[in-house]
Each structure stands twice: as C-alpha cells, then as structure tokens.
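Me: Here is a favour to ask of a fellow structure person. Could you put it straight underneath, so I can go through it closely?

Assistant:
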Amino acid sequence: MPGPQARKGRGTTWALQHRFSQDERQVFDDGWGGLDQRAQTETLPPQTRIIEEQVKSILSGNDSPDISFDLSINPYRGCEHGCIYCYARPTHSYLNLSPGLDFETRIIAKVNAAERLREALSSRGYEPLALNIGSATDAYQPAERKLRITRQVLEVLSEAQHPFSIITKSAGVERDIDVIAPMAARQMSAVYVSITTLDDSLARVLEPRAASPRRRLETIRRLAEAGIPVGVSVSPVIPFLNEPELERILEAAAAAGARRAFSIVLRLPWEVNPLFQQWLEQHFPQRAARIMARVRDMRGGKDNDAAFGARMTGQGVWADLLRQRFHKATAKLGLNTERFALDFSQFRPPARAQLGQCGGVQRSLF
C-alpha cells in the first residue's frame, strides 16, 4: 500500500489526503532538484504544532443508542498519542487537515473550554446529564501538561458539583486526583483507563506517544487507592494482534484495582481504513492479510460496518466468541459486578447557585 516509511514516535507519517480534498498532488521532478530537497525534508522528524482555538461551545450532545453517555467534552482536536487505530482521525478532515500525519502533529487546543462550560452549566435550561471527558481525543495528551485546559474544565465541574467520567490512556490524569477524588467521594466521578496491550514493543508502534502499559496499570492502582471508581477499556480488540491478550489485560487491570471493564472491536471508518492497512503492511506484513480477513468476518464481509448495534461489537461467530471470552473473564475476575452510579442531585449552576438543586436522579455510566 502507498505511504512513507515508519518513524519512531509517530503512528504514521503519511499525510493522507482526506475525503473532502478537491486537489490531488503528485510528485514531479522539475529538474531543479525538487525531489532531492523533498527527500531531505522527509528525513526530519515531523514536529507537533499546537493551534489555539476559541470555541463557541464545548458540550457535544450524543444520541447514539450504543453509547452510554449523553454529553461529551473534548478539550483538544487531534491527539499526539498517535494511535493508528483511532476512530477520531477522520474528524481532522473537517478542518481541511490530514487524518494521517496532521491528526497527531496539528493539535487544536480549545483554550476557552472552561469559560464555555461555565456558560452552558449556568444557563437556565440546563439539566445535568451523563457527561464524559475524552471520548474522541485524549484529554491528557502531552499538550495538557502546559495548557491545563482539562484541569480548568474539571474545576468548573467540581464547583458545579456536576458528575463526570473520564477515559484516557495517559498517566497525566494522576495530576488531577485532588479534584477527581473528592468528587468520587460524593458519587460524582469515575475514570476509565484504556489498555490495549501489555506488550511494550507492540504499544510503541500501535500507540507510540501514550503511556506504557505498565505505567497505565500503575495509574489504575493510584486512582483506586485514592478512592476513585476506576475501570479498564480493552479497546480496540484487533484479531491476531492484541486479541490473544484479552484475558491477561483484564486480569492485570483487576489486580491493579479496576472494578469495571468494557471492550470494543477494531473500527475502520473512512480514512482510518487505508491508514491502518498501510501500518499493518509496514509492521506486521506476515499477519496483515490474516488480520484483515478476520476483521471482514466480523463486519459482514466489509472492512467497516457503521451500523448501530454492530459497530462496537462486530457480528458473526468470531465476534460471538470474543464476547463469550470477555464475559467469562470479567465474571471470573469479579469485574462489572457493580455499576458506577453517579449522583446528579447535588448539581448547582456555577453562576446561579441560588436557583437550588436539581432532582435526585441517579444514572449509570458504561
């Protein structure tokens, strides 16, 4: 498949054109040494650029029947972790940027996220709903260390006593235990840590700038010790790649203190499909055809199936076997025996606390 060579620390260096591109570029030798200059430029490591953005709103509604939260906050667009399988990569197309290299090197930071959140929560018509942080791109990716946008969002949620969940594959979430733990003590926060593999060598190429597997297990332990309900996401499950580790990952997470777990099979929407297949050919050429054949077995013969009810789990015999393995392992380990019920009764609008409290409804996440 087309595409440049792999580079350490990047999921891909392929500046794949997005589906809305109107122009197609081809390399051409004009006789002035342009190809030589291009080759020299491509040997330089691609640098990350943070682009600050003032957003009009920060809460995104969800009406997908197979997702268990109502609202989401993503403080960043794009993600430097560089996970090759990330289903959010195609969203960079809407910015006229490549879902390939640009997704992990052109990071949009929503610098006024906390301000917009405060406005939304204090509006007269707002009622607290199940809210997740980091569902599309990681809220604790490297840019957060300096910008602290996620931290500011959590502080607004804490002030408003608004429940939330977080999903991340970064140890950076430990920095905010001082905010998350007091909320957890009131049944208003939960964290899910994504662990795709326990194999360091696989993790380095699959999700090159995320925390190491062992570091993520340590994060689970520290969150649990702080009294924060913590779960594990074993996602995505990729046949014949990380799939054989499913039970071992669940066992390691449970030993570290995880109380819940969920798992999603590999999804290949839009530009993720050619990016992932090119990555497979680069890193696992002997297994690439076998992996894709099994993916198609779970997707009705297609590379991807976006239908609700099937996109997260797949279908067919192999998908059924995966589900059986997951449920058997979680039952054995005592995972998913209780739900993380979050208390919405304590919410108070941050700018209008005099309005009083909302009803005592409890909802469950994941």
